[in-house]
Each structure stands twice: as C-alpha cells, then as structure tokens.
Design goal:
The chain is mainly α. The chain has 18 helices and 9 strands. Helix 12 packs antiparallel against helix 13.
Length: 497
C-alpha cells in the first residue's frame, strides 16, 4: 500500500479528498487523522474490499471514528455548558483583601489581614465565603428556585442504581475469588482488590445514605429495608447514623451543635499543629494525619463521637446511655434510643455472619475479602464528609451568627471526575444541592445544582482544585478556628502555612 501524500482530520460523516487507506496517526487528543482516500468518499462509503485488504486498518479506522464521535459529543456538551454558563451572572475573582468588604478597623487587628491574604492566595473558592456583610438567602427563597421535578423520586430508577452498585461489588468479589489465590504471596493483588472493591462499595453506602434522607423512594418500608440492609452489611448503624446525620444537615458548620468534623475553637495549638512546629515541617505530619483520619476516623466517630459537636458531649452510635450521651443536648433523646438498638441488631447480625464465615473458610479470607475493602470504603466516607465543609477559606459559625443559609451554603462541590461520579452517585460533585434539600434524589441533583449556580452565583461554592491537593491543603492547615473580628461572626482557620 502506497504511503499517503496528505492527511485530513477525521470527523464523523466528513468528506475527505482522494488518497489511499493507510495507517492511522494522531495529532492531539480527540483528533484522529487518516490518509486521504478517494475523491468524495465518506466513512460510511468505504468499500468492503478496502476492509478485506487490510482488516487491521479497518478496525483501527472504526476505533478512530468512535473516538472522534465521542470527542464530538464531548465538544457539543462543553459548548452547551459554555452557553449556559455564559448566561450566568459573573463576578470577578476576588484577589485583594479590600474586595472582601471587611472594615478597616477589623483588618488592622493582629494578623487578620495576613490571614485573609493567605486564605485568598491558597484557597480554592475565590473568596466567596469570606465576603463580609452578605445576606444569605432564606430556605424558601432557595426552594422557590429549584425545579419541582427535582423533588420527584422514581422507585424503579432508584432500585436500578442500587442494583448496579450491589452488582459491581458482587462481580468484583467473584473475579477476585476466581483470579487471586488466597496466599501470603498474593497480598499485593489483595491490596489492589481492597482498593477497587472498597471504592465500589462506597456506591452502596451512598445508596443507603440516600435512603436515610428519604430520597430513595416514596415507599417508606422499601426505603428503610434497602438502607438498613446495605448499611448493616457495611457495619454502619443505620437508624443511629440517620439521626446524627440529620443533625449534621440541620446545623451544618455550627461550632457547637454541628455534627461530624466540627473543628476545635481557640488559640491553643492542637496536637498535629504542635507536631508540625516541633518538626519544623508540615508535610510529614500531614501524611500521618491523613492516614489516621481516613482509616480510623469513621470507627472513632461511630463508637466514641470523635469530631462531633461539643453540645452533645461524648457520644456513641451503638450505646445511647452512660457513659455516653451526657452532653448539654442529647444526640439520641427519647425514642431514638430504641432506634439505636434497632441499628445494633443489624450490626450484630453482620458480625455473626462474619464469625461463621471465618470459622468455615478461615480468617484470612474474611480479612482479604471484607475487612480490606471496608477499610477503604470508610476512608472514602471520611474524605467526602471532611472535604465537603472544610477548607482554609470556608468559615464556621457560632450560635449567634449561624443561620440556615450560612449552613447550607458552607458546602463545597469538588471535581471527582466522571468515573467516581458514576460509582459514587455524584455525592461529592453535587453536595451543595444535597445540603440545600437532602430529599433530592442523586439523579436529580445535577439539575438542582445548575439552578443554584444560576440563581445564587455569589453563594454557591465550587473548588476546582484537584481533590488530592485539596485534601493535602486541608490536612496541613485546618487545625482549629478562632472568631474573626466584625459583625459576621466568622470563625476562620488559623496557622495557614
């Protein structure tokens, strides 16, 4: 076959000038080039003889056409989103402290200007959450702007998403049993399995989370059954978590009555901060802190209330009586104590199943097939919840300054990418909408998010920072908060490097 004299950019249905079918080449991602092959020919008009003469070339050409088609679809989607975003009100990115609207007398207080400058320079929210004097919208004002369709649940669709998440985990476990020997020498493969299976299992966790928010379906019995089973399988106490998580939503970023990842308040350095100063470097301490938080954070919260709101004292999601649940406010008052016990039944049943599994097939199989993936899934859960409300340029509020609008909009959407968005049902990329109204099903959350972007551009928070970098920024800098001067009542993270 003679080498081509020229190349033309391949596009679906495009007419290309004469030449001969030859080898494919690529000039840049998303654009394939093929030799020019025949006057007025189209891809759909290729003769069967050409394919028979060079089957490999034909296969490559088909693959290229598919790739270009996907690229074209992607370009069209980006163009639509671009046109939509062009219609939105735009605000210039805040780069100077003076643009935040703080009173000069407040900026002159010791370290305040420097602290805000660092938050603007290193943060990812363009200073939106730090602007002084903003009137946050009321719940009704926000609800009125979200399309009514976003609140409609589809039982069949929800069940299909649940089946997909469960099916992915079952398939992954089946392949592991078939392909990976249960030997010590195979531990690198079992580690990879834990990473994959734990990531997939987080999708099941998110489905159960949706059930706990009454966002799964209108059939309450079905919703409770799905949520209870899926959470119990993953040793998450469904009813007790449902109660504490409802408080987290009701008091987001409230310094005393909030729940999960509530920062400490005050000028006294925390243990991680002290360790960083002692070593003279934050990175080594940040690595250790990341591991401790991700792998121990969830059980520490469930069993001992770690990172919970101080108003509730020391709490436990599995035992609602002394020595727990003795704070100024009860996390599990009245009838919720019985619900904690109901959740415990599911946990005990799962532990019993694991015991008989270990006795019958060996504890190595339990550790490899279950404990490893569960550890990874718990790490994902901590990562999501931590980064959804915490960063160096996102304030917290005490009881005097907190209100619903401040709580709901102190939530951050982040770019987890299409693969994790599919597996985890967009739990991290549409979380602002979820906090505005947690009964919105995840498959309607993107539509609600677009409405929030359009109608509340000054309040909607999105951080384009890649998630690993955002996590490292939070781990290195977010130790404790102190109240900033001024009437807004912001509590900001100090000691920003």
């Amino acid at each position: 076959m003679a080498p081509p004299a020229a190349f033309a950019t391949l596009s679906v249905g495009a007419r290309v000038p004469q030449g001969d079918v030859g080898q494919l080449s690529w000039n840049k991602p998303g654009l394939a080039q093929v030799p020019e092959f025949g006057s007025g020919a189209t891809l759909s008009g290729l003769s069967s003889g050409a394919f028979l003469r060079d089957g490999a070339t034909a296969a490559l050409a088909a693959s290229a056409a598919a790739a270009v088609a996907l690229a074209a679809i992607g370009r069209q989607r980006r163009q639509r989103l671009g046109r939509a975003s062009a219609m939105l009100p735009r605000k210039a990115v805040i780069t100077k402290v003076e643009e935040l609207g703080w009173a000069e007398v407040d900026l002159k207080q010791e370290g305040m200007r420097e602290q805000l400058e660092k938050a603007l320079l290193r943060g990812g929210m363009s200073g939106k959450a730090l602007v002084a004097g903003k009137r946050y919208p009321t719940r009704k004002e926000v609800m009125d702007k979200i399309p009514e369709d976003c609140f409609k649940k589809d039982t069949f669709k929800s069940l299909m998403y649940a089946a997909a998440s469960v099916g992915q985990c079952v398939l992954c476990a089946f392949l592991a049993l078939k392909l990976i020997p249960l030997t010590a020498a195979a531990w690198p493969l079992w580690t990879m399995y834990a990473l994959v299976q734990g990531t997939l299992a987080t999708g099941m966790w998110v489905i159960a989370h949706e059930c706990g928010h009454d966002a799964f379906c209108d059939q309450k019995w079905l919703q409770t059954a799905v949520g209870y089973v899926l959470h119990s399988i993953m040793l998450a106490p469904y009813q007790s978590w449902q109660r504490s998580h409802a408080i987290h939503h009701a008091k987001t970023n409230h310094l005393t009555q909030g729940e999960t990842h509530v920062p400490k308040v005050g000028s006294k350095p925390r243990i991680w901060e002290k360790a960083s100063k002692a070593l003279g470097a934050r990175t080594p301490v940040a690595i250790v802190r990341t591991a401790v938080r991700l792998f121990l954070g969830w059980p520490a919260y469930i069993f001992f209330g770690a990172s919970g709101g101080p108003a509730y004292g020391r709490t436990s999601h599995v035992w609602p009586w002394k020595p727990f649940n003795q704070g100024e406010k009860e996390l599990f008052p009245g009838r919720f104590k019985n619900k904690v016990l109901q959740a415990d039944v599911g946990i005990i049943a799962t532990l019993a199943a694991l015991f008989f599994w270990g006795k019958a097939l060996g504890w190595a199989s339990v550790i490899a097939m279950y404990v490893g993936p569960l550890t990874i899934s718990n790490a994902w859960l901590v990562l999501y919840t931590w980064l959804q409300h915490t960063d160096i340029d996102v304030p917290h509020f005490d009881n005097d300054a907190w209100d619903w609008g401040r709580g709901a909009f102190m939530t951050i959407d982040r770019p987890y990418g299409p693969v994790l968005d599919f597996i985890h049902h967009k739990i991290g990329s549409t979380h602002v909408a979820h906090h505005v109204n947690c009964t919105i099903p995840h498959y309607k959350a993107l539509k609600a998010t677009e409405a929030l972007k359009k109608h509340f551009p000054d309040f909607y928070l999105y951080d384009p920072t890649p998630v690993p970098l955002a996590l490292f920024r939070v781990v290195k800098n977010c130790f404790r908060v102190q109240r900033a001067p001024g009437p807004d009542g912001m509590h900001l993270f100090t000691s920003i490097a």
